[in-house]
From TrEMBL:
The species this protein was found in: Flavobacterium granuli
Protein name: Outer membrane protein beta-barrel domain-containing protein
Pfam families according to UniProt: OMP_b-brl_2
Signal found in the keyword field: yes
Signal peptide interval: 1-18
Length: 239
């Protein structure tokens, strides 16, 4: 399903680029949606994909780190853009983010480890609430690059935070709410009828999201000082 969605997005992007190549890249382009950026407020939606991992800091120096395997997840959400001044906008982009990570623990943490001790699968369903500032460059024809930066809060619907079980019962727990800062770049491409805006963004966790096990000497959590999510996000936005 993810592959099909990505192929659809790429097809739309390539088709749109081909249809508008004359107006975008020609010497004297036809200016599309010339007054769009003067709107006080406008809306849109985005589709995209992500890749999340963890930044883990330890209480004591370790010889073998916990390894994180990550896979690509899927993003979908809405965009509200408020114009503050000519080249500065405020954006609110609430979205649903699916992510999957697998933690691989080193065997030397356990006396007689089994496979179930060494692996923890962490499936996350985030509702992301980012508040971002968009700094746009001068528009050239039908292209306008921009920078993004701001903060966000993630509500993890799959956190297991209320579970009474912990890693001893093979239940890995993280906090329901976490905070992040986000930085990214993108480009607005003005077609005849809409704006296509691909962007790349990094999301960096500020708050520790790990819930420790009940056992203070737990091999899964006792030596972890903090565990913070990091995400690589690619979004295709349509206005």
């Amino acid at each position: 399903m993810k592959k099909i969605i990505v192929l659809i997005l790429l097809t739309i992007a390539i088709k749109g680029s081909a249809q508008n190549s004359k107006s975008i890249f020609s010497k004297d382009p036809i200016i599309n949606l010339e007054n769009w950026q003067k709107k006080k407020i406008y809306f849109g939606f985005f589709l995209g994909f992500n890749s999340y991992d963890f930044k883990i800091d330890y209480n004591k120096v370790v010889t073998d780190d916990i390894q994180t395997d990550n896979t690509f997840g899927f993003n979908v959400g809405l965009v509200t853009n408020v114009r503050l001044m000519e080249y500065l906008d405020l954006r609110f982009e609430p979205g649903l983010y699916y992510a999957n990570r697998t933690l691989h623990y080193p065997p030397n943490l356990f006396n007689s480890p089994s496979t179930s001790d060494l692996i923890r699968d962490i499936n996350s369903t985030y509702i992301n609430f980012p508040l971002l500032l968009k700094f746009s460059a001068l528009r050239t024809g039908n292209v306008r690059p921009y920078l993004l930066g701001g903060v966000s809060a993630n509500l993890n619907l799959s956190s297991n935070a209320k579970s009474l079980d912990d890693n001893l019962e093979e239940r890995f727990r993280v906090k329901t709410w976490t905070t992040n800062y986000e930085l990214g770049i993108g480009i607005d491409i003005f077609s005849e009828y809409f704006i296509f805006s691909p962007s790349i963004r990094g999301q960096f966790g500020i708050s520790d999201e790990l819930i420790r096990d009940k056992d203070p000497n737990s091999p899964w959590t006792s030596n972890i000082d903090s565990m913070k999510s990091r995400g690589f996000l690619v979004n295709f936005t349509f206005h």
